Every structure is written in structure tokens, then in C-alpha cells.
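Good morning,

Both structures are done.
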Amino acid sequence: MNKWLLSSALLLAIAGTAQAAGDAAAGKTRSAPCAGCHNPDGNSVNPQWPKLAGQHASYIMKQLRDFKAGARKDPLMTAQAAPLTETDIQNLAAYFSGQKTKPAQATDAALAKKGEMLFRGGDTKRGVTACAACHGPTGMGNPQAKFPRLANQHATYIEKALKDFRSGARANDAGQMMRNIAARMSDDEIAAVAQYIQGLQP
């Protein structure tokens, strides 16, 4: 009896994991409205809009849920996320996370060099944690912790995200981690880190 219960529990856990993984084919079909900003394969052309291709499914799901719940606000995304079901969210995440990220446009080498120091080492005197501590040395993030992949992301989008965290316009970061870090960064530092991230090759 105990073995049967254990087997059943294991099957349910596997089924739950499979459901959470989503259906990429269904996600591709459901992604048609997303293509206007993010492109059909998730590699947005407009640098103001983030690339979704290759982003961790766990992170995409969190952001879509936050937009839907109002924990993260954006006029375009709030409207897009409102009608999404949980299945839609899982399927979209499965589709975009499975796409290949295309290299970003060229970076400002001098600025990126300054950004690299902050990305890799932070500034302990001012309490600016190194980006690599959470997002990894190559910017690939941490899907278990829902820390996003940053490598090859548009610098313009990274700048906006950091400034939104700094101002409090964006407040869906766990434990205010990003708000606390961004609050100690200058515009020049944000621009430099963004340029470095844009050029990161995983």
C-alpha cells in the first residue's frame, strides 16, 4: 500500500512538472499578439522591448503573472497579460524559452569595460552587489531563483529596468534586491553595466 501511494505521489509530481513546463507548440500559436513587440521568435528589434528568446521559463512565467496581478505595471503588458490563463502563461514561457537568442547590436567598448568591473565585482563600499553574484559570470541567470538571463539583452531595456527599480516604478523584485542595488547606482554606472550586458556572450 505504501509503495502504491509513493508511486502515485511520484506520478503526480511528474505530471505537475510536465504541466508547469508548458506546451511550446501551443505557446507558439498563442504568441501571435506578442510578435508585434517581441518578434515571432522572441528576438525583439526595438531595443526598448526585451528579448524573450532563451529567457528562463520560470522568469517569463513570474513576469506574466505579475503583469496580470498588477504587481508589475506597464500599459502595454498589463493589457496583454490580463486575458492570459495559467495554461497560456506556461505555454508562452515554454515557447519563448526554447528559442535561440540572437546576438545584440555592437556595444560601446569603452563604456562596456567600465561596466564589466561593476558587473563582476560590484562596489562593496557603496553596497552595490556584483551583478554576477545572482546572474552568473556570463549573465545566464538562475532559473531556480527566477533570476533572469541577461546576456545579449538590449542595453536600452536594461537601462530602463534599472532606472525603474531605482525610482520604485518597478517593485516586483524579491526582497527589494534590485531596488536596493539600483538605488546606489548612478546614471553613468547603469549605462556602463547595460552596455557590458548587451555584449555578453554566454
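Second structure follows.
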Amino acid sequence: MTVLNRLAFALKHRDEVPNQELARDLAVKKDKAGIREVAENLWNKDKNIQADCIKVLYEVGYIEPKLIAPFVDDFAKLLKSRNNRLVWGGMTALAEAAKPNPDSVFAHLDAIKKAKETGSVITVDNSISALAITASANKNYSEAIFPYLLKHLSTCRPKEVPQHAERTLPAVNKSNKDAFIKVLTRRLEDLNGGGLARVKKVMKQASNL
């Protein structure tokens, strides 16, 4: 039986529950053949099937990131899609795949940056996570990525600062925390209420590293 029969579209569901249930089953059983079939159908002619498949894959990634690590090249390819659902879905999957497979994600650094500059809010949010997690892997990746993340934090819209500071935190370490805190300190005057509290919390977390 093909796993495609369990997609939301195949079951005529308008919600994502079947996709989440399928992802959970694939992850728990470590069903690599099933996951590969889902990945192959990212290129299905039916956009509904494509959308369900990327949903299943990043949901698998939430549970067991290493199971989607082999498909980094596919996720990066989605960043060039004209279908926004596939773009932000691909970026979400890359953020998870970066945890076990930062080398492959780093190879697509330019594509991630380009998608971030032109993408939707969800694409941008997940690009910060993908970049930060990759940067945390080693010194070379950090040197290539961290200044870019700092520049983003210094210029992004005030309402984006709290979440993006939180998403950048995995890339912060003893050697770069001062630069990170300095950028956030300059942004404090743009913030208030809950957003201000969140950024102060991130700064405290960074200072304790």
C-alpha cells in the first residue's frame, strides 16, 4: 500500500490531521522507504499532493530530524518554487534537517539567503532557524553566517526582533555573544511590552553562555 493513500488530499480532509498522523507513524517506525516515497512526490504533478508531502516531511523532522536529512537537496530546490506553500515548507524542513546534517544545508547557503530576502513571513522565520542551527555546527560556518544574522537583527522590523532573536540563539556562543547582545541592546528602544521582555530574556540567556 502506498503511503500517498494516507495523505489529507487522498482522504479528502481539509485539515492537516492525516498528514500529522502519517508523519508520526513514519517517524516512530523509522520507515525510510515510506519517507522516501513521500519525498519523491514533492515533484508530483498535483500541487495538493506536493503540499501534503512537504507537510509530512517537516512533521517527521520535528520528531526525528535525521530521517529527513537525506533530502536536503530536495528541500533547497523547493526554495525556487513559484508555489509559496512549497517554499516555506522547504525552509521549515531545512531548519529541522540542519540539526543532523548542517554540512548539506550549508552547501545551500546562498539559496537560503535568497529565499529569505524575497520570501513570506514563515519563510523568513524558518530561514533564521536554518541559518542559526547551521552556524552552530562549527567555527567556519559561524564565521560565514553569524554576521549575516546580526545584520538581519539590526535591520529587521521591530515586531520581528523577539522571535528572530530567539531563533538566532542556537548560533550564539562565548566568542560572539557580546556582538549579539550589543545588537539587541540597540534594538531595545524599538520594543515594548511582551516583545521587550522576550528580548531581555534572550540577552540574559546569551550573557550566561
